[in-house]
Amino acid sequence: MWRILIYIAVLCAIAFGAVWLSTLSGEVTILLPDYVANIDLPVAAALLILTGLAIAVIWWLVATILRTPFRMAKSAKVKKRAKGLQALSRGMIAVGAGDTGQARRYAKQAQKLLGDEPLTLLLNAQVAQVTGDLTSADAAFRKMTANKETQLLGLRGLFVEARRQNDHEAAYTHAREAALLAPAAGWANEAVLEAQCMKGAWTEALEMIDRRVAFGLIDKATAKRQRAVLLTANALAVEQSAPDTALVDSTRALKYAPTLVPAATLAARLLGQRGDARKASKIIEKAWSVNPHPDLAETYIYLKANASAQGRLKRAETLGRLSNLDMEGRLIIAQTAVEAREFSRARDVLKPLLDEQPTIRTCLLMADLEEAEHGAVGLVREWVARAARAPRDSAWIADGIVAEQWAPFSPVSGHIDAFKWQTPPDSQSLPDTSAFDLDMDEKPESQASEAEPTFIDVTPAEDQATPPEQPAEPEQEVAKAPEPEPILADTPAVDPEPETEAPQPPLQPEAVEPIAVTPKPVVFPEFRAPDDPGVDTTNTKKKKR
């Protein structure tokens, strides 16, 4: 509507101007060297307007002719870029689809049409990665680092390639440069943090945690947990050289994560060495009530160096009540009961575990019990053989790796606080346990059925090595002996030849009264696969103190 009104207004103005010029009177004189022209004023005005229009048309034609080559060149460049972008798009699709031939062809076409543009370099790098040409990929990423717009992308590509080649030092260098270039880059900060942890630079790692929190890369709860883990790692590293610093760091770690088992164990052990058993007990009881762990139990029981076996049993009973007699509580009570020679108490507390499927530690503890109470070598061997086929106990696991000790980060991914106390997956193939019976003349009868654990003496079958014409007089002498050994089936009634005597298996050492709390040395844990069928007796051996 407004455009129509404006158009009508312009026409009216032109008509009004034409009428106005026609009403004017006067002449315009043009003087030339040999000619004088007198023109009426309206005609002169019309000629002036027409002359201006003619000059404008001529200028437009000349400009058009002059700009035509540039326009043609620009049009060709636009078409070339459009073809390059199309080739780039198709190349990206081919890379994603895994069509390396098409991807390589489109990458060359895009490189030819677009040159060294960021996306072209990225496509070439991806094609080189897919085809396994690491040299070309490295060259493409290094070209990206020369451009400010793609420098961060090139550093990330170089970082990924360095990790694929297990060049951790180069990967750390690229990540550190990227972190300086873009402080909020999450992958760069995380990579630098992992490298600092692997080097044991715990102070720098703590500073990086604060930096990640400031940029909003991790939440406050995660930051507290990671600070606790790093402080615990630093405390373990300086436990022998600077115990005061270790105590301060472990106490700070407990403020961030009160139930962190390694921090609670270390703080309680250091406080026990200083004679502050009461404070150490509170720390362990708080952590135990949430996460019962064998290390907590061991530290708690041996806090007092001069405690008697009965005193250790009472402390174990306290832990059992705090955990409502769960598996760990029952095992520690049974272990201390065996040391205190309270065998009936040990059997009572282990019975619920034996009614189910006993684990390796339970079976080995039953072997200790049979040895300590009866000296029953046959039953000891039976329980050791059952331990080889029993389910595995809980252990520190991270990224499919089972560790003997806790570690602050995963050896596979490098992530902090990756180790969790959980049950490893059972092995698909059970180990051959015949080796346990190679030195026995006959397997015990109770080994044929694992459903019911044996609590009484089992008399095995007669020794097959004994000749059938063996006289009966020695058997009568054995029967009249004041204290017979009914379960030692591998000791024949007659005097055997030395070469036929069955070798005795090694027995576990007897418990020794501890005289002082000995701190554990800080070593990196040994790792093994989660389906390793070997018997893990780490948490069941009685430790000499």
TrEMBL record:
**Superkingdom assignment:** Bacteria
Annotated region Disordered: the residues are 418-545
Q: List residues traversing the bilayer.
A: 41-66
* Listed SUPFAM superfamilies: TPR-like
The record's annotation in InterPro entries points to: HemY_N (IPR010817), Mms48 (IPR016982), TPR-like_helical_dom_sf (IPR011990)
> Where's the HemY N-terminal domain?
26-131
Question: Keyword set for this entry?
Answer: Membrane, Transmembrane, Transmembrane helix
Per UniProt, subcellular location reads as:
Membrane
Record's protein name: Heme biosynthesis HemY N-terminal domain-containing protein
Species name? Hohaiivirga grylli
